[in-house]
Amino acid sequence: MAINIILAVADGSPNTDATLSTAVMAARKLDAYLTVLHVRPDPASMVPVVGEAMSGALVEQMIDSLAQSADRRSDLARASFQRCCEGKDIKVNFDIVTGAAPDVIGIRGRLADLVAVCRPSGDDIPTQTAVLDAALFDTARPVLIAPSVAPSTLCDHAVIAWNGSIEATRAVAGGMALLRLAKRVTLLVVGEDDRRLPADALRAYLDRHGVTATIERITGEGGPTGKLLVERAVSLGGDLLAMGAYGHSRVRELILGGATHHVIANGGITVLMDH
């Protein structure tokens, strides 16, 4: 699928500059329109349920404090937009919507071709994880997860984590526009190759789409699959890791660990995911 519209989430956190810089690089490569979206929370909806002991004046004071915090975040998001997006020779706009960020992203992302978000980190992990989940599960779109530090290149060397799963297949299809622009593509197989859809079959499929790829196989020894994927992709010089998201249930991965959870939590590389 062509990527003509990119939606980038600017939450005003310290990761916003890296997210927007990554989205700008993608927009320039793809000649895509970039919409930078900041979701401002509604302070009234953020006030916790209170008992009769809390006075109306105290509730009003809480709402005012939350509104000031929301305004600061909005200002930080706009400043990031001005630093990272203006004057970059791309088609771009900045939009602010009031509401719950996961709900807004889950809806607005459906009319984008790619959704760019930050890697959850720091004090914002709960909210940023909820936004990432909404992008993955509610938009039916590929998701570009920016590293905490803006990359110097994007998709010069794309690495595809391949296991024959439907999630990995969706990641390949969703990222095809970027894969076609890559100077080098590597198919990375950890452990046993899938006999039904081996990496050789994917290589032939990509070749039909004008993408030449090589295959890299590594054993599944030496740590969790997610750790091996990131380490090998980085050691190969990859600047984009395309992979399926949550082949197991999300709850299972959070409890027992899994490749998706590890890459999201620890990845120092730009990641393209699709569920």
Concise account of the structure shown:
The chain is built from 11 helices and 10 strands. By secondary structure, it is an alpha/beta fold.
Fold and architecture overview:
- The structure is a single chain.
- This protein is of the alpha/beta class and 275 residues long.
- It is built from eleven helices and ten strands.
- The longest helix is centred in the first third of the chain and has 29 residues, at 56-84.
Structural class: alpha/beta
State mean pLDDT (0 to 100 scale): 90
Q: What fraction, in percent, of the residue positions are helical?
A: 40-55%
- Sequence of secondary-structure elements: EHEHHEHEHEEHHEHEHEHHE
Low-confidence stretches: 251-257
Strand order of the largest sheet: 3-2-1-4-5-10-9-6-7-8
CA-CA gap between termini = 16 Å
Largest sheet: 10 strands, mixed
User: Could you tell me the strand content as a percent range?
Assistant: 15-25%
Spatial shape: elongated
Radius of gyration: 20 Å
Secondary structure tally: strands: 10
Total DSSP helices? 11
